[in-house]
Amino acid sequence: ALLAAEVGQILPPVEITRAYVIVKLENREDIDEVDWEVKREVIRKSLLSQRENEVLGAWVTELREKADIVDNRKYYF
What we know:
Layout: E1 14-16, E2 19-21, H1 33-66
Antiparallel strand pairs: 1-2
């Protein structure tokens, strides 16, 4: 909806994390396509890395919960 809005137009309420906001488009600027592609790739890599860390953390937690670990340090010290 925001991409189709005209400058000065007030858009209907939009739900965000814990609230609703009303958006008014104050101005519109053309983007630099090359700069956008660079930033897009940086954001993509950052989000991918974040997701990989979440999945790896969940996997390690699951392995720990399922593991049958016996503490035998008392026999070595």
